[in-house]
């Protein structure tokens, strides 16, 4: 068993006006979207997060076991907010 203490990499520095490749995936290549309802819920959550945080989503792609996209945040707190928003979606399919 390997135990990691601390973060596996340094935090990324947020640059004003920078675009970021954002990815979220399931454990062990498991599906995170079971059906179109899950996909629609994710898109709705993403739209709500964009309204709250003023993110610009330039591209996104939903695949069975992960999501990916290019986003432009308007402030430095985007990573913390994304973890909160993405975490909310991650629990949704588990609770159905």
Description:
By secondary structure, this protein is of the alpha+beta class. The chain has one domain (20-95): 2-Layer Sandwich (Alpha-Beta Plaits), CATH 3.30.70. 38% of the residues lie in helices and 22% in strands. The protein is built from two helices and three strands; from the N terminus they run βαββα. It has a three-stranded antiparallel sheet, with no helix packed on it. Strand 2 and strand 3 (66-72) form a beta hairpin. Helix 1 (36-53) packs antiparallel against helix 2. The longest helix is centred in the middle third of the chain and has 18 residues, at 36-53. The radius of gyration is 14 Å and the shape is globular. The chain starts with 19 loop residues before the first strand and ends with a helix. The mean pLDDT is 77.
Give a quick rundown of the structure.
38% of the residues lie in helices and 22% in strands. It has helices at residues 36-53, 78-95, and strands at 20-25, 56-63, 66-72.
Strand order of the largest sheet: 1-3-2
User: N- to C-terminal separation?
Assistant: 33 Å
Fraction in helix: 25-40%
Q: What's the CATH topology label?
A: Alpha-Beta Plaits
- Strand segment tally: 3
Report the CATH C-level class.
Alpha Beta
State which percent range the strand residues make up: 15-25%
Radius of gyration: 14 Å
* Shape summary: globular
- Category from helices, strands and their pairing: alpha+beta
Provide the succession of SSEs: EHEEH
Uncertain segments = none
- Number of helices, counting only DSSP H or I runs of 4 residues or more: 2
